[in-house]
Amino acid sequence: MNNLKIINLLREASENDVNKFSNNTRSSLAISTDINKVEVDFEWLDIMEDTIHYIDNILRNPNRFIVNEEEIVKIELARRTTVESIKHLAKHTNFIQKIEDNGDVKPSKILNTNKDESYDTYENRLIYTLINNMRNFVEIKKKSIITESSLKDVKKAKYTAKSSIGKEQVFIELNYTSSLIDKKGPAGELPVEDRIKRLDDDITMLCNTEVYKTLKKLHVARVIPPIKKTNVILKNTNFQYAMRLWDFLQNHVADDTKNVKSKKNYEDNGILKEYMNNTFLMDYLAMSTLSEKTNEDKKKEVIQEITDNLIQRIVELNLDMPLTTLQERIGDKIAVIKTKKEASLSEIQNAFQDRIKAFLDKIENTRL
Question: Considering the entire predicted model, what is its pTM?
Answer without folding.
Answer: 0.51
